[in-house]
Amino acid sequence: MAKITLDNLAHSYLPNPQTEADFALKALNHDWVDGEAYALLGSSGCGKSTLLNIISGLLIPSQGRVLFDGRDVTTAPTADRNIAQVFQFPVVYDTMSVRQNLAFPLKNRGMDAAEIARRVQKVAAMIDMEAQLDHKARGLTADAKQKISLGRGMVREDVNALLFDEPLTVIDPHMKWELRTQLKKLHQDFGHTMIYVTHDQTEALTFADKVVVMYDGRVVQIGTPQELFERPAHTFVGYFIGSPGMNLFDAQIDGAQARIGDVTVPLGGSYAAAGRTQIGVRPEFIQLSSGDAGIPASVRRVEDVGRHKIIRLDVGGQTINAVAPEGFEIPADTNRITFAPEGINVYADDWRVTPQGAAA
Ligand code: ADP
Ligand code: MG
Question: Which domain range does residue 231 map to?
């Protein structure tokens, strides 16, 4: 296992990048702590695979260095990095049996037959393919082949890191949860450094200790699920994480108050913010009210989603979401919303502003 350091790393697929926009991965410094489980989360095209492939050595970055435990591996081939990588689509040997496919990474390293048999059996149980061990990979479904790919990624116990690039895309929905649980268990048992790429927030938040959120080629926040929920560092994080995501209001910020139109909103702290200023409020921190305090709002629709209700409101032409517990009855005279001050974050040009006198 290893600590992986990214030192001033950036990548452009163009031969002569000129502006920042030419970089698929913008400059980044980060240590992936040895033994931690990370999720790399972001929408399609934001640079997740680019970053993962630089770590595994499939891609040489146009700028910066990759270090494993302090050793520069920036230009070292994948084979020298002692890494297992699982891709979005299956990579299996069709003419080999499931057993031979799973054994391959071990046989390649000259491991003795009894130890190979033990590990293959164990991994076959994890991916629920014990009954098919002697079937040829050819003829199996894409789903089964992907499980073999996952198994091959998990079979070695001595790797520096395990990298997964959206590995459950072609897996049957009911099996996804099971496999994710197995990956988590593998992490608990062996403590490998794991990086799991996904565009699915539920997958990211349930799998990882730390979530690395990417947006437009940039790492915008690295944090625990709770940090991403309570203090989204960028409006994208607020909107992307949570269901529904954070609401944003254009607001003028004046110390410990925000002004939205002609309504004054008390903030939980004092702020100095310049540029395009907004406040972000998660649906959990929006309260319905009536009378003349708060921001004028009208209830458009209520959706029952099991354990809670989502209330869709119209606020000056903008749709705002609030959530309420299952049994909550929406008062008929609702005509305003108010915010719990501790649930308000302030943004300037999309980046969170730290309240004065507070630690970030
Ligand atoms: P993700 O995995 O988050 O979907 P990628 O890392 O694959 O994103 O892609 C990031 C950006 O780089 C995208 O704009 C994509 O079109 C571009 N890109 C990816 N691979 C290549 C390539 N081989 N050549 C040129 N552009 C690429
Ligand atoms: Mg990708």
Answer: 4-240
Last residue of a domain, one of 224, 240, 256: 240
Measured distance CA(43)–CA(217) in Å, rounded: 10
| Ligand 1 atom index nearest CA of 44 | 4
If you measure from the C-alpha of residue 124 to the centroid of ligand 2, how many angstroms do you get, rounded to a whole number?
Answer: 27
For residue 78, count CB atoms less than 10 angstroms from its CB and return exposed for 0-12, middle for 13-18, buried for 19 or more: middle
Find where tokens 């809670």 sit. Answer: 308
Determine contact, residues 47/54, Cβ cutoff 8 Å.
no
Do the domain assignments include residue 312? yes
* Structural domain total, the chain: 2
49, 51, 54, 163: residue to mutate for ligand 1 pocket, most atoms within 8 A of CB: 49
pLDDT tens, residue by residue, 242-281: 999 999 999 999 999 999 999 999 999 999 999 999 999 9
Ligand 1 atom, smallest distance to 166 CA? 2
Which is nearest to 300 in space by CA: 283, 317, 278? 317
Question: Does 260 lie in the same domain as 206?
Answer: no
What pLDDT is stored for residue 358 in this prediction? Answer: 78
Residues 253 and 306 in one domain: yes
Residue 358 within any structural domain of the chain: no
Domain boundary among 189, 215, 240: 240
Residue nearest to atom 5 of ligand 1 (CA): 47
Mutate to test the pocket of ligand 1, among 50, 166, 215, 240 (most ligand atoms within 8 A of CB): 50
